[in-house]
Automatic annotation (TrEMBL):
The keyword Chaperone does not apply. Residues 8-238 form the ABC transporter domain. Gene3D superfamilies: 2.40.50.100, P-loop containing nucleotide triphosphate hydrolases. One of its GO terms (biological process) is quaternary ammonium group transport. Belongs to the ABC transporter superfamily. SMART domains: AAA (SM00382). GO terms for cellular component: ATP-binding cassette (ABC) transporter complex. The keyword DNA-binding does not apply. It comes from the Bacteria. Keywords: ATP-binding, Nucleotide-binding, Transport. This is Putative spermidine/putrescine transport system ATP-binding protein. One of its GO terms (molecular function) is transmembrane transporter activity.
């Protein structure tokens, strides 16, 4: 099966439900054939953005273009977009074949042409032989594939998926994620997937659009977002980040001094863009911390609370002197003797990959 994939551009999209703004000034670009994830907590406006792109919400300020053409004035049916809804929204009294053929009847396709197309789509999503089943006679994963086949029926230039894996258990989810990526790559169709699951977004998408409270916090590749989070929100939402409160004492090109909530002083060999006296939050990824024997300019004293093995790694929960808890991961068998619980130790911060945010941002 071939598709004609096209680039998607969303520019200045806003939407208000009965006077309540849900989405404001949302702009992003998805290159042709690319898969992007709209990622954010429940209620942040992801589905609203998806529905606006699909033309399911009344036209509002903002431009949505597909393949360079402004599609915002077009009704949903004429936009060349296929959409899979959160609960799949299959018609319960229609067979698999009837569900898939539904959008084709609207286009005036005759029975024979519809049948051929349904067969082709069922083969694409590997559901051959199940055309006469009703949705309730299918597993969750199979229902999802029917919904994908129906979305692909009209040969869309863009595929939208709203939380496609939310209803499935974890083990099945991984299989279906791999299957979806394979299908997306085979078809080469531009795809936007909505999810509140940051691991899922990182696993599926080549571009993340991270949303919070109706606006975009950051867009970038999963690695860019993970390594260079633009805000404390992004830092905490995508992957784990330990948070340590501090006040900037001095900051110059020669180095910066921070007074930590524990009472300790950190001297970092880098400049910080904060005025002396600014309250800040330092964030540390668990894999960027290490346990060392001696204190230095960039260590903090800690006490081991608990160690949890996870595959080849061990995760250590550590309490700093003021009770602040942070996590540290390290390869499991590198240390010669196991660490005693409550053992005093020093945590070395990675001064390059340490992020510093204004303390005013919501934690
Ligand atoms: N039909 C609606 N009428 C009124 N408010 C809505 C409607 N749909 C969504 N909202 C509100 O808009 C905000 C964004 O919702 P939504 O786009 O569904 O978020 P998400 O998909 O990220 O969970 C939420 O505060 C939600 O309560
Ligand atoms: Mg939603």
């Amino acid at each position: 099966m071939q598709t004609h994939s096209q680039a998607l551009t969303v520019n200045g999209l806003s939407h208000t439900y009965a006077g309540q703004p849900a989405v404001e000034g949302v702009s992003f670009h998805v290159a042709a054939g690319e898969i992007a994830a709209l990622l954010g907590p429940s209620g942040c406006g992801k589905s609203t953005v998806l529905r606006a792109i699909a033309g399911l919400l009344p036209a509002k300020p903002g431009v949505i273009s597909l393949g360079g053409r402004d599609i915002s004035p077009l009704p949903g049916r004429e936009r060349g977009i296929g959409m899979v809804f959160q609960n799949y929204a299959l018609f319960p009294h229609m067979t698999v074949a009837e569900n898939i053929a539904y959008p084709l009847s609207f286009r005036g396709w005759d029975r024979k042409r519809r049948q051929a197309r349904v067969e082709e789509l069922l083969a694409t999503v590997q559901l051959g032989g199940l055309e006469r089943r009703l949705p309730r006679q299918l597993s969750g994963g199979q229902q999802q594939r029917v919904a994908v086949a129906r979305a692909l029926a009209v040969d869309p230039a863009l595929l939208l998926l709203d939380e496609p894996f939310a209803a499935l258990d974890r083990a099945l989810r991984l299989d279906l994620q791999i299957e979806l990526v394979r299908l997306q790559q085979t078809l080469g169709i531009t795809t936007v997937i909505v999810t509140h699951d940051q691991e899922e977004a990182q696993a599926l998408a080549s571009q993340l659009v991270v949303m919070n409270r109706g606006h975009i916090e950051q867009t970038g590749t999963p690695a860019e977002i993970y390594d260079h989070p633009a805000s404390l929100f992004v830092n905490s939402f995508v992957g784990y980040a330990g948070k340590i409160r501090a006040v900037v004492e001095s900051a110059s090109a020669a180095g910066s001094t921070l007074k930590v909530s524990t009472g300790e002083t950190l001297r970092l060999p880098r400049e910080l863009r904060f005025a002396p006296g600014s309250p800040v939050v330092l964030t540390v990824r668990p894999e960027r911390l290490s346990i060392v024997d001696r204190p230095s300019d960039f260590t903090l004293a800690g006490r081991l609370l608990v160690s949890t093995p996870l595959g080849p790694d061990v995760i250590r929960s550590i309490a700093l002197a003021d009770g602040t808890e942070i996590k540290l991961t390290e390869p499991r068998d590198l240390r010669r003797s196991p660490l005693e619980s409550s053992a005093p130790l020093f945590i070395a911060l990675d001064v390059v990959n340490l992020h510093v945010f204004p303390a005013g941002e919501a934690l």
